[in-house]
Amino acid sequence: MRLAAIFPPSQAPERLLPVAAAAEDSGLAELWVWEDCFSESGIATATAILAATSHVRVGIGLLPAPLRNVALTAMELATVSRLFPGRLVAGVGHGVQEWMGQAGARVESPVTLLREYTAALRALLHGEQVSTSGRYVQLDRVRLDWPPAVVPPLLVGAIRPRTVALAGELADGLILTGETTVEDVGAALGQFRGARPASRGGPADVVVFTNASASGPAAEIAATVNEYGRAGATCVAVNATERDADLAKFASFLAREVKPLC
Q1: I need a surface site. Which of 18, 20, 173, 180 has the fewest CB within 10 A?
Q2: Three-state SS for 9?
Q3: Given the DSSP bridges, would you call strands 173-176 and 154-157 parallel, antiparallel or unpaired?
Q4: pLDDT per residue as tens digits for the range 69-80
Q5: How far apart are CA 6 and CA 258, in angstroms?
Q6: How many domains does the chain have?
Q7: What is the DSSP letter of 66?
């Protein structure tokens, strides 16, 4: 099981690079970012971390499908993946519906959009030519000129059973939010595996976001992380609950004091 830190979009972008450097220097293997309206781009923050480090793996959890044309998302993920092969994990999801409405991007059926979007994005990233005329996603003979040499794992963020099952059917893994309990992980895994086609094969990535006080005891944080691991999580990404927390120190703390206990 992997231990990761989170750089949330509530932090100013200029605070990102010291956190990336601290993660790299302390040996933390993974950082996660996401795209909140109207804060920061998930693609831009992920690329900045990758460019400033040589080993850290970066997860985007997640990009809101209603806000982004799928061809553009495929182009961006492919570009970043070719620049930094094997170091990117991509996540997509419904987005916060209120924010989607503010941006004029809210759709009547978020599940239908995410299904069409995930299928098209996965195909594009694998170098396929895609033509589709769905309810929300329409593509006419679209193929990436520069598909990624190492295709990033494509995860779907989910809470409710229908979306968890969609992730199992179409994606490489699942992202579960900070409100997910240990019991929720077990239930979601059952739904995910039940929908997973036999042809997909290979282990699935199950990423759980959790919150912890930046000043909390290492043993307490490690105990929570280990509970999620026993429930089936393959990665636990920890978010400092204090809005003004020093995330560079927190990333080092996770690597040096929490990780040995996991």
Answers
A1: 18
A2: coil
A3: parallel
A4: 999 999 999 999
A5: 15
A6: 1
A7: G
DSSP assignment of the chain, as one string?
A: -EEEEE--TTS-GGGHHHHHHHHHHHT--EEEE---TTT--HHHHHHHHHHH-SS-EEEEEEEEGGGS-HHHHHHHHHHHHHHSTT-EEEEEE---HHHHHHTT---S-HHHHHHHHHHHHHHHHTT--EEEE-SS-EEEEE--SS--SSPPPEEEE--SHHHHHHHHHHSSEEEE-TT--HHHHHHHHHHHHHH--TTT-SPPEEEEEEEE-TTS-HHHHHHHHHHHHHHT-SEEEEEESSTT--HHHHHHHIIIIIGGG-
Contact 140, 129 (CB under 8 A): no
Digit-coded pLDDT (tens) for 36-53: 999 999 999 999 999 999
State which residues form the domain around 7: 2-261
State the Cα–Cα distance between residues 1 and 36, nearest whole angstrom: 27
Residues in the chain: 262
